[in-house]
Amino acid sequence: VQLQAFGGGLVQAGGSLTLSCAVSGSIFSFNVMGWYRQAPGKQRELVAAIATNGMTNYADFVKGRFTISRANARNTVNLQMNSLKPEDTAIYYCNAGPGSTRIAGPYWGHGTQVTVSS
After folding, report:
1. CB neighbours (10 Å) of residue 51?
2. How far apart, in Å, are the Cα atoms of 54 and each of 3, 12, 38, 64, 110?
3. Per-residue exposure over 85-107, b if at least 16 CB sit within 10 Å of its own CB, e if not
4. What pLDDT sits at residue 27?
5. Distances from the Cα of 50 to the Cαs of 42, 116, 117, in angstroms?
6. How many CB atoms lie within 10 A of CB 11?
7. Looking at residue 68, what is its pLDDT?
8. Per-residue pLDDT tens for 1-58?
């Protein structure tokens, strides 16, 4: 299983970025796909997750700003990030697993850096 994340970069506060995670094999192999992030000196935390039935779970700090979606035909999961803030700066990781949207799965991709300048 391979998860490849891309789309990170440097953006000014208030700007937008879209992260994508490409899954080797079928995305339907995983009930839940998600994005987590880890800022320097902090623990990794859930950003958003989506199940095959479309149910989503968002962290409070991104509600109304970020949108997670699955592109099943392309075996990808995307994270549209709008109204970015400097505190969103972190390494973002794609995650996949069989469980619920509230628990990280066992599969992780390499992170992609998101830096938001003030």
Report:
1. 17
2. 20, 31, 25, 17, 24
3. eeebbbbbbbbbbeeebeebbeb
4. 65
5. 24, 24, 28
6. 17
7. 98
8. 789 999 999 999 999 999 999 988 776 778 899 999 999 999 999 999 999 889 999 9
DSSP codes, 89-105: -EEEEEEEESS-TTS--
Q: Are strands 112-117 and 9-12 parallel, antiparallel or unpaired?
A: parallel
Q: Which residue type is seen at 85?
A: K
Task: Give DSSP secondary structure letters for 29-79.
Answer: G-SEEEEEEE-TTS--EEEEEEETTS-EEE-GGGTTTEEEEEEGGGTEEEE
